[in-house]
Write a structure and sequence with these properties.
Elements lengths: L4 H6 L10 E3 L8 E4 L4 E6 L2 E2 L7 E2 L2 H14 L2
Antiparallel strand pairs: 1-2, 2-3, 3-4, 3-5
């Protein structure tokens, strides 16, 4: 289930309180919220963002570039 647009516009990173990039998919699986400044990913489970700092996953340079490319393909 894709994350609601109203909610996406209001979510911020719990670490730096900045905007997050929503990375959805057509099937609604593999949805992520990405903070490109801190290079951390927050997962979305069953349409619910898991915005816990302890649950955030850091990404390396290669994954960072791949996530930005994915964001560009979806129009951010």
């Amino acid at each position: 289930m894709p994350l609601d647009a109203f909610l996406r516009e209001r979510l911020v990173c719990p670490q730096d309180h900045g905007a997050l990039i929503y990375l959805g998919s057509d099937s609604g699986t593999d949805e992520l919220l990405y903070n490109e400044r801190l290079r951390v990913v927050y997962r979305i489970e069953d349409g619910i963002p898991v915005l816990l700092i302890s649950e955030a996953r850091s990404v390396d340079d290669a994954e960072h570039e791949a996530l930005l490319a994915r964001a560009g393909a979806t129009g951010r």
